[in-house]
């Protein structure tokens, strides 16, 4: 499936904002990654730029826009697929950029920074709201969340993205990470789970 713009929202789970010492935002903190940063987790080993500092995992539900929305389209009309992904972050680089008031592109948009599990059909907005997702790192559950913990709803996020940027078919949205983020090291084995379903595996190179 084609990938257009990869949008993401920061600090959408209160406990994650707190663990990094960030304020709770009053409106969604939106950023994006180049489409070339995407990589599907298909059991392979992926190289990461550890020479640039700590790389943190952030486990997130990822939504795919299925068709260009008409004005006032509902969430169910907009979204075609869902999966679990990793918004990989160069945390040391990000801290430096934040300190200087610079854009996050280098910290969030590097090669392989948008890891995607296999696409699953959209389950409908009502079922989505209680859909659990998790990350297993080296066989242990390391992050777990459900959309009910989000501060800004998917409905609000999609409306805002469409108003500002104009959503298009193939756009993706990383919906934010729950608490429990941390650094990766070479050799880590990661398993992405949507509920009980294994949707992707990678090894860190
Ligand atoms: Zn994130």
What would your notes on this structure say?
The chain is α+β, with helices and mostly antiparallel strands and 205 residues long. 19% of the residues lie in helices and 36% in strands. It contains six helices and 16 strands. It has helices spanning 14-19, 75-78, 91-100, 105-108, 125-128, 154-164, and strands spanning 6-10, 29-33, 38-40, 42-46, 55-57, 59-65, 79-87, 89-90, 114-116, 120-121, 133-137, 140-145, 172-174, 182-183, 189-194, 197-204. Strands 1, 2, 3, 6, 7, 9, 10 and 13 form an eight-stranded mixed sheet that branches. A five-stranded mixed sheet has the order 4-16-15-11-12, with no helix packed on it. β15 and β16 (197-204) form a beta hairpin. The longest helix has 11 residues, at 154-164. The two termini are 26 Å apart. The model has no long low-confidence stretch (mean pLDDT 95). The protein binds zinc ion. Zinc ion binds at residues 8, 10, 58, 60, 87, 174, 176-177.
């Amino acid at each position: 499936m084609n990938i257009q713009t990869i949008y993401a929202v920061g600090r959408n789970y209160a406990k994650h904002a707190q663990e990094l010492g960030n304020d709770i935002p009053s409106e969604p903190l939106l950023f994006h990654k180049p489409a070339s940063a995407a990589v599907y987790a298909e059991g392979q080993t992926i190289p990461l730029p550890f020479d640039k500092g700590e790389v943190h995992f952030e486990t997130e539900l990822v939504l795919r826009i299925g068709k260009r929305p008409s004005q006032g389209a509902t969430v169910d009309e907009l979204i075609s697929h869902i999966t679990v992904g990793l918004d990989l972050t160069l945390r040391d680089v990000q801290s430096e950029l934040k300190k200087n008031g610079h854009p996050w592109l280098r910290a969030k948009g590097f090669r392989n920074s948008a890891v995607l599990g296999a696409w699953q059909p959209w389950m409908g907005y009502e079922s989505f709201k209680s859909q659990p997702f998790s990350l297993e790192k080296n066989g242990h559950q390391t992050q777990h969340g459900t959309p009910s913990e989000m501060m800004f709803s998917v409905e609000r996020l999609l409306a805002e993205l469409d108003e500002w940027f104009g959503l298009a078919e193939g756009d993706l949205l990383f919906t934010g990470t729950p608490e429990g983020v941390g650094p990766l090291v070479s050799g880590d084995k990661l398993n992405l789970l949507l509920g009980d379903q294994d949707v992707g595996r990678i090894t860190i190179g």
